[in-house]
Fold these 3 entries.
Entry 1:
Amino acid sequence: MSQPTPEVYESGRGMDAHNEVMREIRARNDESYDPTEPTRVWLDEDNTPDGVRTSLTIILNTGGCRWARAGGCTMCGYVAESVEGGTVAHEDLMTQVEHCLEHEADTADAPAELIKIYTSGSFLDEREVPAGTREAIAQTFADRERMVVESLPDFVDREKLAAFVDRGLAVDVAVGLETATDRVRHDAVNKYFDFADFEAACAEAREAGAGVKAYLLMKPPFLAEPDAVEDMKRSVRRCGSVEGCHTVSMNPCNVQRHTMVEELYHDGGYRPPWLWSVAEVLEATADEDVIVVSDPVGHGSDRGSHNCGECDDLVQRAIKDFDLRQDPSVFEEVSCACESTWAYVMREETAYNQPLVR
Ligand code: SF4
Ligand SMILES: [Zn+2]
């Protein structure tokens, strides 16, 4: 006679159910992408442990994240932008890098000091970026000061990081932790790993002589505004206490295409967080021993973090100012009548009546 097991119990429930829904939503996407073009590239300025630096951010188009192929995170639409078929050849990846260098040469006065490479997955996953390509990319940017490479905790490995560290680069691994609360990460984000795995990745990075930049997600689906704010304050503090994690990038969830968040949004069940909430977390955690930055994507739009429409640009500017200076007094200079509506949401919104105000 068959015995009940946790696997049987889980079948069709929890993560299993989330993955099934996510696979179905993603299957509706029929766009395809050129393997020789990067997904995106742009120039900016970033706050690093050594001060503010000019940066070149590259989103490489790889085969996409393994976890996304299984179903993946409820808010993540990046895999929809990845190349069909699961892998991109070395030559194509290097052509993408060439295009990024051309963009930099055309737009910037001088080469960026900081290079950030994201892949809509894990740069350190061999299946996305083979060892030889990793080496070639490290060589290409060996004359820069610092590099950030994105990876899930599983793939953080001192030997892989040595390709960069041994070339004299300051290296950070960008880990999409999303929240320090395992229950929220599992049930609301549908991300499989635990905080303990993040801590282990930080220790491994430290062994390699690298640092960690944790990416947090404010307000995944199913969390009300006040719960989302609390979750972020707690998460920033917990990240700050992990040795090796020197920066937290705390970003409000936005509504990306082909995601569960988008389904909920269309059915009136999701509103991205208020920009006041972002300001509240940055202000409340400013005294923690960790750099905290935020970059609200699509701010002021219905699909991005927004307030009333009148004050969005003002609050966004204060957030960008905070990113570079880490001075919470920047928020004293912004105010708007909609703060009282936000305060009402913070008092009254719950998981079952959200969104209280759109
Ligand atoms: S958020 Fe990261 S781990 Fe989750 S599906 Fe997207 S790329 Fe994969
Ligand atoms: Zn306002």
Note: The two ends are 53 Å apart (CA to CA).
Entry 2:
Amino acid sequence: MKTITVLSRKGGAGKTTLAVNLALTAFLQGRKVVLADIDPQRSASDALRARREPGPILAEVTAGKLFMTKSNAMRDGVDYLFIDTPAMPEADVAQAVNIADLCLVAGRPSFLDLAPIVRSAEAVRRLGKDGMVVLNQAHTSRSDVAPTAFPEILEALRFCGLPLAPHGLRAREAFQTAMAHGLCVAELEPGGPAARDLHRLWTHVEGGLGALGGETPMRTALTA
Ligand SMILES: Nc1ncnc2c1ncn2[C@@H]1O[C@H](COP(=O)(O)OP(=O)(O)O)[C@@H](O)[C@H]1O
Ligand SMILES: [Mg+2]
């Protein structure tokens, strides 16, 4: 089992959108998936509850229960545990980072999002975790969010210590419409541009998880 934590110190960065859509993508590919929602706002839970079709198993928990959630998921033969986090408090997010195999730092490619991205990336590195920055809500016609569109932002991100995912998500209405029905954008608009972005991102993330190798032993002493 692999655990993927989505984080950002900024609200509205796209954590929930990423966590829900990636969890659904893995589920639709036949994986057994748990989505743990530790954000008291419960946005990811609201989205999955709006879903009529079968979907990922939802775990509405506090950060303190994550360790147990992960143990249970491993026992139950789950393939992927996704964790959607709040922007704060830092200690809760740290617990979610601590039990992750891979952390996705979500952020918009805008000047005001830069500092939160860098600080979230620092938190991941401080805890010795693997991660990548995923740009979300990019306003660009390019399918790869990385090149040339935002040179000064990309330049700054080069120094945040985490690699930039070569595929991000562009701003698409489909992400908002799909979320309201608990759907993956690929179910709402199969083959559409949002679905393509998401598929490319998931292929990259899953490839990165495969490269991490076998099961990561859980740390027994989690700091609060
Ligand atoms: N790629 C996207 N395209 C269009 N709207 C988006 C996209 N990503 C997020 N949103 C919208 O932006 C808002 C904030 O996203 P959300 O995932 O809730 O962020 P967070 O969980 O980080 O607070 C939501 O209304 C969501 O529907
Ligand atoms: Mg959220």
Note: The chain has nine helices and seven strands.
Entry 3:
Amino acid sequence: MINDLPRGLTSRHPVAEDHARVLAVLDRWWGGLKGEAGAVERALLLPRLYFQHFTSTSLLIERPDGELAAFLVGFLSQTEPDVAYVHFVGVDPALHGQGVGRALYRAFFGLVRTQGRRYVHCITSPENTASQAFHTRLGFTATPVQPDYDGPGLDRVAFTVDLAPRPDGPSTPDRTVTGP
Ligand SMILES: CC(C)(COP(=O)(O)OP(=O)(O)OC[C@H]1O[C@@H](n2cnc3c(N)ncnc32)[C@H](O)[C@@H]1OP(=O)(O)O)[C@@H](O)C(=O)NCCC(=O)NCCS
């Protein structure tokens, strides 16, 4: 499904049985970001429904032994017909910096383009500087920190990228593949 992964990794769409496996890695993969409150926040952001009703636009990557290596949970906006949304993405820290996150996004961009989506949106916590650097590197534009975006005390940075081909070359996400 994704053909530009590091050797040995394979991808597929998730199923409901993957829900518990993904929840089990969140705290380790996020490095305990924001402590106990962060752990609760993360678990509540990924209820089982995402592994039941959003599977065709979500992706899971596994090692040869079946161990979870990375995931992306995303969907098509119900409200905005040209928008898709990445809700949650994570890569095993042992695999960071090998292009797995970028490969997940490229695959997602490809999937949602076939559904006529031009823009991809996502959000992250102001504390998650790695996520901000990653999304910026992939061509996303960030807003300033938006206080209480997701509720009292839940500040967020919002990102968007335009998937349309640029007049002077390939579309933004493809351009970032060969960077800078
Ligand atoms: C953010 C995350 C998904 C990146 O995954 P990854 O597989 O390491 O990223 P990639 O190797 O594909 O990197 C893609 C680009 O982003 C850059 N990048 C990735 N992480 C970065 C970091 N921490 N700081 C600076 N740049 C970073 C890479 O240098 C690369 O740029 P380049 O190829 O142009 O040199 C991963 O660090 C992660 O899972 N973090 C914990 C969970 C999380 O915060 N998820 C996002 C919020 S929901």
Note: The first helix runs from residue 19 to 29.
